[in-house]
Amino acid sequence: MSAVRCVDVCKTYRQGDEDIHALDHVSIEIANGGFVCLSAPSGGGKTTLLNAIGGLDVPDSGEIYIDEQRIDNLNKGELAALRLQKIGFVFQAFNLIPVLSARENVEFVMQVQGVAADKRRSLAMSILDEVGLGGLEERRPAEMSGGQQQRVAVARAIVSRPALVLADEPTANLDSKTSDELMELFTELNTHHRTTFIIATHDRRVMSYAKRLIKMLDGRIVDDIAQA
Question: What are the pLDDT digits (tens) for 110-134?
Fold first, then answer.
């Protein structure tokens, strides 16, 4: 069964007097346990495709499936429930809540899911240790480095063991050493937990970790390469 399947997906934006084809008849299939990078220059369509797969943006036409469930025709409430249960998001801006500690940021999604307080705390502490932040659980984002904040964001995204993690330029604000550490963490999660990763990036270092590289240009897929 596919983790993600897109069939003839289109998305057009109006910019002044011009139509911008952000997605132009895109069709892809990504297997469960895949580790895929979407590569494109700015405006090439990679973020729009990622947002469409995550239910953050609705295509104008075409079909999108997550675990063979069609999602492009779901309402806002159904999409929110899908994201909560099946998808983890990692963004370049981290999107942490500044007044909450690392542990509380990780617990936040589980709180929305209705997980009991003692279990939330236990899972948050465990996952923060797994991503290398043991001992820093009570620090707030402002007391952490950029790499540490990104690890908190990753911990929050994966604590509920979603089948799919979508990452949009996750290394954009990190130095090369921290970027490599983050990608090694993603690789470990992919290998040991069979988590499917789709990463939008133009960072060649990130692309080198992918098992599959999908190149986009002007909203179209122009290359699809399996990598060792």
Answer: 888 888 999 999 999 998 998 889 9
